[in-house]
Write a structure and sequence with these properties.
The protein contains 4 helices and no strands. The protein is mostly helical and 127 residues long. It has one domain: Orthogonal Bundle (Helix Hairpins). Helix 1 (5-29) packs across helix 2 (31-50). It is flat, with a radius of gyration of 19 Å. The N and C termini lie far apart (69 Å).
């Protein structure tokens, strides 16, 4: 049976609602996701305050979007590993550690991007 365009639209909206439910779950249940969220609000506030350039906005958006995306993937990996086994297993630990390491590396990159963008504005504002 073929789906009409209305059924496809309903499926599309359902998939969006599932994605939003995942984001909401992560924000409510994951401390690091909340930290990233509040830091991103601070960064957006600074971006508006300093009137950063369009190119700088692009870097800020990629940094924020990347860290949220990686944190969601990290959380998903942790949940799947926890679902598969309650017992300690070295490979389960490695999977969780590797995913956390990816978030950590991207967070360092995001801090470097933010420092490169905002430190000159901050020093000009002080002087």
């Amino acid at each position: 049976m073929l789906m009409d365009s209305r059924d496809k639209q309903v499926q599309l909206w359902k998939s969006f609602s599932y994605a939003l439910a995942g984001i909401k779950t992560a924000l409510w249940s994951e401390r690091n996701m909340r930290i990233h969220f509040f830091v991103s609000l601070l960064v957006i506030g600074c971006s508006i305050f300093f009137s950063i350039s369009k190119l700088e906005w692009l870097f800020v958006i990629v940094a924020i979007g990347g860290i949220f995306s990686l944190e969601l993937v990290n959380t998903a990996i942790e949940r799947v590993v926890d679902l598969v086994t309650d017992d300690y297993h070295p490979l389960a630990k490695q999977a969780k550690d590797l995913a956390a390491g990816a978030v950590f590396i991207y967070a360092i990159i995001a801090v470097l991007v933010g420092s490169t963008i905002f430190l000159p504005y901050f020093f000009r504002w002080l002087i």
